[in-house]
Batch of 2 targets.
Target 1
Amino acid sequence: MTKVSHGAHSLYLYGNIDGSWELRQSKPNELHALRDNLNNSEPLEDLFNMINSFPTVRETFLASETYRICHLEEKAKLCGPVIEKNYEPESEDEALSDPVVCSVCDGHYHTSAFWICCDICNQWYHGKCVKITAKKANRIKHYECPECFNDRIGHN
């Protein structure tokens, strides 16, 4: 709505729904109602609070079943083949002890994948899950997993 001065009368340019425009004389009640609503910030504050009370799209997605499934599938892809329910130990020693499980993806030990053990917490990890190769591991004297590293520097 735009005000146009035309002699002694004030005319307003109205945009119609169909996209056309027309000049009209404004009704005094409409102007006062518009002006009064512009000065009242309470409805805007209420709207702001209502909008902010809802979870964000990110929070909703992270809490969803879709994210959980995608996240687990992605971790499984990083770690290569994971043997789950039909897991069979490869040796007698392994059969007597608890199975070795990757602390990131919960995949069982498999000889075809590179594994590394944290020297602090003694947890085992697929090299791909902690982004370390066998070549890098050979140059490391003391391996610290990401969780122990974050605990040491004070991050969670």
Target 2
Amino acid sequence: RAQSATRVLAEIQMAPDRAIPHSLMQVAHAVAVIPNVIKAGLIFGGRFGEGLVSIKKPDGTWSDPAYIRLTGASFGFQAGVSSTDVILVFTNEDGVKRLIHGEFTIGADASAAAGPVGRYANASTNGHLDAAIYSYSRSRGLFAGVALDGARIGIDNAADQRVYGT
């Protein structure tokens, strides 16, 4: 899981026209990377993914990653299965605290918006970071903002314990 998450973030950031803007990463309080989120549905649908989150410390360095899970359900006209890499950039402490202290729902507990991309997005994000979370996805090589309202994110305590032993 750690290698996949690292690879996804590195690949996205290597393409200047598709990268998460530097200005957004500078103000980020945390970044979550969830590779291979599976979404499946036939009238009723669901999504599931496992990934990592790292929190920016007061000195500007990043914490060791914590393991997380993303789940969600949906209803409506839908059919099929897809796999998508998801990156979430948390822009305030409230969203990070909610994640650390338990599971929360995107859109209900923290506002989310499709994140800006590319080298020219820096100017549009300076001073206008209104959402608590900016979401990105990559499916079949295409990278863009993604709507995740209703998805739940929580710490995967069992995975953390297996890796860190506490």
